TrEMBL record, chain B:
The protein's name in its UniProt record: DNA replication and repair protein RecF
PROSITE patterns linked to this entry: RECF_2
Residue span(s) of domain AAA+ ATPase: 25-361
Highest classification ranks of the organism: Bacteria, Pseudomonadati, Pseudomonadota, Alphaproteobacteria, Rhodobacterales
Residues binding ATP, per UniProt: G33, P34, N35, G36, A37, G38, K39, T40
Keyword field: ATP-binding, Cytoplasm, DNA damage, DNA repair, DNA replication, DNA-binding, Nucleotide-binding, SOS response
Listed GO CC annotations: cytoplasm
The family this protein is said to belong to: Belongs to the RecF family.
InterPro entries: AAA+_ATPase, DNA-binding_RecF, DNA-binding_RecF_CS, P-loop_NTPase, RecF/RecN/SMC_N, RecF_2
Amino acid sequence: MNSNNKDIDILIQLMAKLPGLGPRSARRAVLHLIKKRDILLSPLADSLFTVAQTARECVTCGNIGTMDQCDVCADPRRAIGQICVVEDVSDLWAMERAAVFKGRYHVLGGVLSALDGVGPEELRIPNLVSRVGDENITEVILALNATVDGQTTAHYIADQLEDMGVSVTSLAQGVPIGGELDYLDDGTITAALNARKAV
Amino acid sequence: MAHLAVRQLTLSHFRSHKRAVIETDGRPIAIYGPNGAGKTNILEAISMLSPGRGLRRAKTAELARVPETVGWKVSAILESLGHTHELETSFTGDGSRTVLIDGKAAPQIALGRLARVVWLVPVMDRLWVEGADGRRRFLDRLAMSFEPSHGEQTLVYERSMRERNRMLKDGITDPSWYGAVESQMADAGAMIAQNRLQTIARISAAQAIATTSFPAASLTLVNADNSEIIETADQLRDAFADGRRRDMQAGRTLVGPHRDDLNAIYATKDVPAAQCSTGEQKALLVSLILSNARALAQDFGAAPIILLDEVGAHLDADRRAALYDEICALGAQAWMTGTGAELFDSLGNRAKYLMVDDGATSAIHPIP
């Protein structure tokens, strides 16, 4: 490492730790930023500094925002009695991009996994149970991944909410839009067939 | 002519083979050459065209040719029930192996729907006398040839059971958490048990009507404590819940399909397989493979691709001849290895022959 380039090398190493970037793409990105110092690098540095100071978890749902309560939780129009439970903030943002769900969210921060040392207390499941009681919730929609751990977590949450008089539903599983039946696995085809609906 | 067959096989940096292309014509393939030449590696490459870790159960990285270790690739043109598919599976050095079917990324499990592959390897010669693990794997491979989703159910069950075992070891007592994990285990476990029982029923039925030189086996699925096999998800859920205290003391799950075992009796002698001679044990295994092929030909429309490594070991000349006759009659594409060409004498021109050199590159020579 050239000591003259130490700061730049540190920046490249940090960039290479970002999802989707490796050492080569990090070098390209840093070079691009340096070439666009005024219109990209400096504003980016300012923005990173600001977000580092202000970003925080929403105290209610676990979403990431810059206030104690995120925009969704602060919006009274979203209080329609539905909570959509997601594993991670990225799932919440994906749901928001679709702009279909009008209720509120609850971010678990992971899924149950004894192998990874993640139990109910490590997730935000107790907070979810409290919210269901406090916010007049009528339906909890489980939007968890169709993995073994995701489904175990769904079972667990359904069990915790069983006596609370709330409807617990989960996202449908089946043929993705643009998907070809020929390439779907048997389990997906079975799920799709079981969840068929009138045309 | 085989209805399910590899028409072209290409190996790249796979085990001892730097690059090899093998064309086939639908006949069985007899591969011979000295020890260490790379014959079994060809069979292993074909086994990688099905889900799982292949016939040696090797780690993905171990399949790469040394000293290059640049990863490996196996590709094939597969003919399956009148359709031609391009299969490719490869490993580039990190992550898990990837699968392409007709140029599109696909999960490993999708291979099982196209390429039904079963095998016999020398290490299985002791299948009947060693632990139940090997017999379960053997039965599961046969079950997967009938029902490709069996592999997926097995993965779900094993993953959930590892979770439960960790909870037991960590002394977790939350009944809701156990209930959630056990529910997953029970749903997958019931499917596994049913698939295994159906596989045994299909193979037994195929044995009953077959004209064969190989001995029939009376097959049963038993479990570790000789109690009844649990077949339904509800029963399994109850069994897991009832056994929590006992399992916590043991630190592992003591009931479920992971404890089941395949029991075989040499039918005409009424002797357990484990007490038969080495040759008889091998003949029983061959008999099951052939019965599986017959049943699959009836159900699926094609016999599976059969991989027989060192097929001549423990079989006398008459039994070998009978085996070749039955494979040809079934129309199955069998890939067989042996150290010398004389082991395949009775096949005559009913097979394609390949000679593999004992060298650094495992050169393959088609024999006219």
